[in-house]
Amino acid sequence: MIEELLVAVAGAAAATAVYAGAAARVVKQYERGVVFRFGRLRDDVRAPGFTMIVPGVDRLHKVNMQIVTMPVPAQEGITRDNVTVRVDAVVYFKVVDAAEALIRVEDYKFAVSQMAQTSLRSIIGKSDLDDLLSNREKLNQGLELMLDSPAIGWGVQIDRVEIKDVSLPETMKRSMARQAEADRERRARVINADAELQASKKLAEAAAVMSDQPAALQLRLLQTVVAVAAEKNSTLVLPFPVELLRFLERSTVGPQPAGSEVPAEPSSAAAVEAPPTAVSEAPAAPAMPPGTSPATPKPPVSDAYLKGAAHAAEGVEPVGDLTGASVDPAPPGDGS
């Protein structure tokens, strides 16, 4: 009797162990368990941890609740400004309702992938090339809204959508490179012109200060000489002030230098004996007949020359008759 009781207890324990092994389930922390009993959804979703089901009656489906990173294949399309591009993206989504994700759609991952591809082609056709290249944040938000609207009914939430790369034709890349180069050159010219304008204003202010203080110009000249002499060269460039040239020009107006041309000495004694005052004062030029050009004026006679001529005239003896004494005059009354 006891042996039969022990056998019955052992059989019950074995059956219980088998039942427990068949009914026991473990749901991980990032998963949720959805139970179907005879094909009907149970209301309770199994939380993470140890759980039990009825073997042969219940079926437990585990749904991953982690964020899924799904790359979207590159889609080729034509933008609104008629440029052919290839754009690829990546979608980040997660399941927020495990029961809806299993019931509403057959394969929620495949459904999200196909919806992302069609939405990406649609967003390409509605955008310009400049928006795809520089205004991606706005396009990402628009693409996220397009995906989130139908996905929310599947128990899936779109967390983020990012456009990864935009592939352009080679001809378009070269055109954009030329445009960028021209824009850079334009900006460089504007900056150089602005710098020249500022420098000219500062130079004008410096010139005004130097005109008030002539010593500043000399100091600036010495600074330039020091800057040039600092280099290890054999040539020294020395600026020549323009004011010095003007001073030399003013000093040359006046008496002629010693090497100037001297006019010819007069041949007659009367011209030599003329007083210096009469010679120094130039007589008025006679009127020229019409149709003739005036002669080239002689250079002015210096005071030194007049004094020398007067001194030479004092030592010349007067000469009487220059016709000669050997010739007798003809007698008066002679017909010859």
Molecular structure report:
There is one protein chain. By secondary structure, the chain is of the alpha+beta class. 47% of the residues lie in helices and 19% in strands. It has helices spanning 2-23, 98-103, 108-126, 129-134, 136-151, 170-212, 214-229, 242-251, 269-272, 276-280, 303-314; strands at residues 24-27, 31-37, 40-46, 49-52, 58-64, 68-78, 84-95, 156-167. Strands 3-2-5 form a 3-stranded antiparallel β-sheet. Strands 6-7-8 form a 3-stranded antiparallel β-sheet. A hairpin with a 2-residue loop joins strand 2 and strand 3. 10% of the residues are buried.
Summarize the structure.
The protein has helices at 2-23, 98-103, 108-126, 129-134, 136-151, 170-212, 214-229, 242-251, 269-272, 276-280, 303-314, and strands at 24-27, 31-37, 40-46, 49-52, 58-64, 68-78, 84-95, 156-167. By secondary structure, the protein is α+β, with helices and mostly antiparallel strands.
Helix content: 40-55%
- Which value, in Å, is the CA radius of gyration? 59 Å
- What is the structural class? alpha+beta
Q: Span between N and C termini? A: 216 Å
Core attributes:
alpha+beta; three-stranded antiparallel beta sheet; 8 strands; rod-shaped; 19% strand; 336 residues
